[in-house]
Amino acid sequence: MSIQQGSDNQNQSIHGLWTNRWMFVLAATGSAVGLGNIWKFPYITGENGGGAFVLVYLLCVAVIGIPIMMTEVLLGRRGRSTPINTIRRLCDEASASRFWVVIGWFGMLAGLLILSFYSVIGGWALVYIPNAMSGMFSGSTAEQVAEIFNGLLASPGTLLFWHSVFMLMTMTIVARGVEKGIEKAVRILMPVLFVLLLVMVGYAMNLGEFARGVAFLFKPDFSALSANGVLIAMGHAFFTLSLGMGAIMIYGAYLPKDVSIAKVSIIIAVADTLVALLAGLAIFPIVFANGLEPSAGPGLIFVTLPIAFGQMPGGVFFSTLFFVLLSFAALSSAISLVEPVVTWLVENKKMSRVRASTLAGFVIWCIGIGTVLSFNVTSAVTVFEKTFFDLLDFIATNIMLPLGGLAMALFAGWFLPRLISADELSMGQGAGFRVWWFLVRYITPCAVVLVFLNATKII
Question: Is 227 within a domain?
């Protein structure tokens, strides 16, 4: 693997560097863009009143998402290592307590746990591709589509097979490293993702309900937005950018020194938000044109949309296109979730990248079996009234990620010397740096605490 030297004499990542800033942007955008944008964003927007929710979400991306993303990238580039080793090095450089290494451990473990069930959901998207191609949804009623989905969940063998296929695809890409694996994958996946979304939006524009979909997304009705909806928007802005799990930090470790962290962070946040909005523009006109409910919940993609696809002209083509799109989005995020674990094994256990990828993938695959069985064989087994899947999702995304993001903001804002942050951000001590410094020290931590308290209020 070729190593591009930075402009200083820092130790470079042993795993290589991105060949240019656009490769980092594509990879980090791929990490951020996933099922959360295309599957979750539309249905939580539908459940929380549309335009007002979107407006609050955009504000939260600016106040929470971008400052924490800048923080995570600067930590990664300064440490040039895995999240754990990076924070350890920075603690020594800043003469801070090594307690902060918990940031790296939390992020790596959260990514591993999330991918274990994310892979199962990614398998749903994969199995829907041949279903769509075969015309299975053509002319189907709501009951028939629900039966297809319920039949999938009831079959542990089918779920396990597609979970395995998804994990194999992910680990094959990761095993090839930064330049030969991840870069090549995102060069293809991310541009295709945007093209497919634009095709879907183009189709939605011809349904006769596009104006209604646009109004639903962008015309604020604050009477339809509750206080809880504001907190959900805040939480989704945080989670959709893949923050707090070490993914952006490890990608930052591969970032050349001469690249502006502020610029690429803003580009990634804008691209991630654009994908979510395009998904909404593609989905809501289809929902309205077929008399369906925008607040249908998590089943909006796998249960509700196939009904619409089954009734529309060219439904076989567009349903296939959509689930290919969903699979691409899931795969691009999965790559980043496992990268911190693989690099830690390479650095600390002196494994080859192929062996590290195989071991990490096998462990994640084994944990994922628990999620597979939680939809059928062990569905009646609950802890705190949650199945294995629900409990894993709750712990990883609602507890570990907010704590990781909060810890990063506090470490960078209060314990990492200001000169180190200024050096990595390359913004001088001007207005831009002062805005970031104020946000990461005061505003962002307070906002993350609000998200965390909302997420854990049932405990």
Answer: yes
User: What single string gives the DSSP state of each residue in 152-198?
Assistant: HHT-HHHHHHHHHHHHHHHHHHHHTHIIIIIHHHHHHHHHHHHHHHH
Over the stretch 151-174, which tens digit does the pLDDT of each residue have?
Answer: 999 999 999 999 999 999 999 888
Of 109-113, 173-177, 179-183, 312-316, the range with the lowest mean pLDDT is 179-183
**Domain membership flag for residue 40:** yes
Residue 224, number of CB atoms within 10 A of its CB? 13
Q: Token pair of 154, please? A: 């009831």
- Burial (Cβ within 10 Å: 0-12, 13-18, ≥19) of residue 212: middle
Q: Write out the residue range of the structural domain in which residue 401 sits.
A: 21-455
CATH number (domain holding residue 408): 1.20.1740
CB neighbours (10 Å) of residue 92? Answer: 10
Residue 11 lies in a domain: no
Task: Give how many domains the chain has, as a whole number.
Answer: 1
Per-residue pLDDT for 337 more than 70? yes
Res. 73 pLDDT band, cuts 50 70 90:
very high
For residue 10, tell me if it sits in a domain. Answer: no
